[in-house]
Amino acid sequence: MIVTRKKTDVIQLSKIRMREELRRRLARDAERRGVTLNAEIVDRLERSYTYDAQWLRDAAIIDMMVDNNDVNGVLLRRIAAELMKKPNWFASELEIANMAKWIVFTLDSFGHRAPRGYVSYGDRREEDNKDDDQADQQDDEHGNEGQ
Predict the structure, then answer these.
(1) pLDDT of residue 22
(2) pLDDT averaged over 10-residue windows placed end to end, the chain, 147 residues
(3) What is the rounded CA–CA span in Å between residue 104 and residue 117?
(4) Measured between alpha carbons, how far is 66 from 83 in angstroms, rounded to an integer?
(5) How far apart are CA 65 and CA 81, in angstroms?
(6) Neighbouring residues of 11: CB distance < 8 A, sequence distance ≥ 6
(7) Which residue, 40, 46, 47, is CA-closest to 24?
(8) In the chain, which end has fewer C-beta atoms inside a 10 angstrom radius, N or C?
(9) pLDDT at residue 132 in the model
(10) Which pLDDT belongs to residue 127?
(11) CB 147 within 8 A of CB 139
(12) How far, CA to CA in Å, does 74 sit from each of 58, 63, 77, 78?
């Protein structure tokens, strides 16, 4: 006999297997929020589906904004994901500086040169920027600006 359930029915799963470390983290977070372990697990599962749906919607919007350019889309998705993790990035000078460093690092990972005045992060060093500035200066002297 097959039992049909309504979407609103609450069911009990017999066993869920997880690492003890994960169970402890969930229990700690549940205690901090003043909810049961079960409520914490259910809330996190529901939020994961909400996040997935929001991510798909945002991805479609980003694709439209960049005319389906893959590189630009990936860059904007990374920035959007970081902003979602840190919604108050503008709350202090330190947070703003950290976000600016993250953006420069992310641009570097795409192979773009950091703007003048920024120390590049990742594999690039300050000396690399000086070399780039010298090359720009030589181009300017020889009339090769913008080439």
Answers:
(1) 94
(2) 82 86 95 95 92 85 85 84 86 91 85 56 45 57 53
(3) 11
(4) 18
(5) 16
(6) 5
(7) 40
(8) N
(9) 53
(10) 47
(11) yes
(12) 12, 9, 5, 6
